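User: I'm putting together a teaching handout on how multi-component assemblies are represented. Below are the sequence lines for each component of a complex, exactly as they appear in our records. Could you produce the 3D structure of the whole assembly as structure tokens, so the students can see both representations side by side? Please keep the chain order the same as the input.
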Amino acid sequence: MKVASWNVNSIRVRLEHVLEWLESEQPDVLGLQEIKMPTDDFPAEAFAEIGYQSIANGQKTYNGVALLSKQEGTDVIDAMPDFEDPQKRVLAATYGDLRIVNLYVPNGQAVDSDKYEYKLSWLAALQAWISEEAKQHEKLAVFGDFNIAPEDADVHDPAAWEGKILCSDAERGALNDLMSLDLKDSYRLFDQPEASFSWWDYRQAGFRRNRGLRIDLVLASEALCTSATAAGIDKEPRALERPSDHAPVWLEFT
DNA sequence: ATGGTGGTCCAACCA
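Assistant: Of course. Below is the structure of the complete assembly, with chains in the same order as your input.
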């Protein structure tokens, strides 16, 4: 089994990239973030033609998540319980005995902003929801664009980013709380290259200079970690013409 | 010191 996550920054613009990546990598499940279109506009037919079913949870202009898969997803959840949110940022489904939670965590803009307070309250609601999901599903993967770099090793310039948005103590604390629900950052189960990132700013030639952050994560339950065989980040799509600013991240297990 | 790119949609917001 291979599961993957990719913030595509508009599925309209990135449709060909995603179709090509699915055909070459053949993941069993791919979660998308920032589809940036209403649910009803999602190009399900294009994915069906190459053998992928889809579930979308979108809105006009901003946010939006989707799940593409070879088998049908069941027990779909498209909003966190007990958290009113007009922003479409979550989508969960079950594939066989595997539970998938696909997240687009709020960016937060800056640590002194209203959007940061929204991010922290959103993460508190997530903690409550995922603790319930973890009780119900032994094989659980919680993946997506977390908009949090777990550690300084996940940041190109830790001194410059210290305490800043995506790296603040409160954000990292919320991520650690989530991981204390027996969920591991699966990328670190394996030896990885230094300076491994999943997002590079479009500005200042961030990708060419590898000035990035690793903020796209696949958190895996103990039952998944014990059968994990490989994890990685595929930088190839980030080097294409008109790329997303994020690369797909993936986990394989038996 | 400032702003620098890109998507959505055409002014301004979000990242």
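A couple of points students might notice: The CA atoms of residues 7 and 33 of chain A lie 4 Å apart. The longest helix of chain A spans residues 114-136.
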